[in-house]
Design brief:
Layout lengths: L1 E2 L16 E7 L4 E9 H9 L5 E2 L2 E6 L5 E7 L2 E7 L3 E5 L5 E5 L7 E9 L1 H10 L6 E3 L2 E5 L1 H10 L9 H19 L1 E3 L11 H13 L7 H7 L4 H12 L3 H19 L4 H7 L5 H12 L3 H8 L2
Parallel strand pairs: 1-4
Antiparallel strand pairs: 2-3, 3-10, 5-8, 5-10, 6-7, 6-9, 8-12, 11-13
Helix pairs in contact: 3-4, 4-7, 5-6, 8-11
Length: 305
């Protein structure tokens, strides 16, 4: 049977006391992050009810167990008893038959885990955009440490960024996760390479585009196109060239423009917020304070003494 891990009632979702479930939808639903927390007894009951199946999506299982957990995983016609710990992942390619069973342990133990789901078309299209054609074979992978993907998933779980550049941050994280998957968990015809660095002209074009559009909700794709690159490679190369991720560079540029307007004009703070890309003055004030350590009005008063 084929199982849709992104459905409204997701596999291993437990409806019981002490259980928690949260879904973060990204890229118009093409990527989803599902976070679970429940008693081991309830998780076992849910897992035992799910037969051998084929996931519709590519599934990254992220384990957040507070102490090692024994599992029995049937994956792609292989069965393995695992002892998995916090920081481990298992990769289930779309259409790879799998089944999971949890070992007997303290039934009241609370266990936490996540699924990072990618629609197959999303990864395939992203690969094609970067010169990686068929065959694109994903590798079923039993539990193994991958703290890098855990860090990405943790950041994606905190995506409520009250900042007009928040999309830049999310897109950069997703591109990094996809690069990791294609490099580590797939056999591809052409290895990921891309240009070795941004030229001075590409850096200038990207920065000019950011500065000219600083009052807009900038996205990674538009900045990358200004530099003549795909978004997939741009974020990594931009950071190597400038020392800042696109998200941090845009935020810093906005704050520098705001500081200039606060010093040189008597514009209301709400107007300054809009001129540097913030529709909500409260979001602007919060970001200004987090970057500079004081509120915009306090900065203005200090500069006029």
């Amino acid at each position: 049977m084929t199982l849709d891990y992104a459905s409204a009632v997701s596999p291993y979702q437990v409806a019981a006391p002490y259980s928690r479930f949260r879904c973060v939808g990204l890229r118009d639903g093409q990527v989803k992050l599902l976070n679970f927390r429940a008693r081991l007894f309830d998780v076992q009951q849910s897992a035992n009810a799910i037969p051998l199946h084929r996931p519709r999506q590519h599934v990254i299982c992220l384990h957040h167990f507070d102490r090692p957990m024994k599992l029995e995983r049937n994956l792609d016609s292989r069965v393995r008893r695992e002892t998995s710990a916090k920081g481990d992942i298992a990769f289930l390619p779309a259409d790879a038959p799998n089944r999971l069973r949890f070992s007997k342990d303290d039934p009241e133990r609370l266990v936490s885990y996540s699924y990072l789901l990618f629609e197959p078309s999303y990864l395939k299209d992203l690969a094609l955009l970067n010169g990686i054609g068929d065959p694109l074979d994903f590798i079923p992978t039993f539990s193994r440490p991958d703290p890098f993907l855990h860090e990405i998933a943790s950041a994606l779980a905190s995506t409520r960024i009250k900042d007009p550049a928040g999309n830049l941050f999310i897109e950069s994280l997703l591109n990094t996760a996809c690069a990791r998957i294609l490099h580590t968990y797939a056999t591809v015809r052409y290895r990921l390479s891309g240009p070795p660095r941004l030229t001075d002209d590409q850096v200038r074009k990207a920065i000019d585009y950011i500065q000219d559009n600083i009052r807009e909700a900038l996205d990674l794709g538009s900045i990358a196109r200004a530099a003549g690159l795909s978004a997939f490679h741009f974020a990594r190369l931009f950071k190597a060239a400038t020392g800042d991720s696109p998200f941090h560079f845009v935020t810093r540029t906005r704050m520098e423009r705001a500081k200039e307007l606060l010093r040189k004009t008597r514009l209301p703070i709400s107007d300054i917020a809009q001129r540097v890309g913030y529709q909500q003055p409260s979001h602007f004030s919060a970001r200004f304070r987090s970057v500079l350590g004081c509120r915009p009005d306090a900065y203005r008063k200090a500069m006029r003494r």
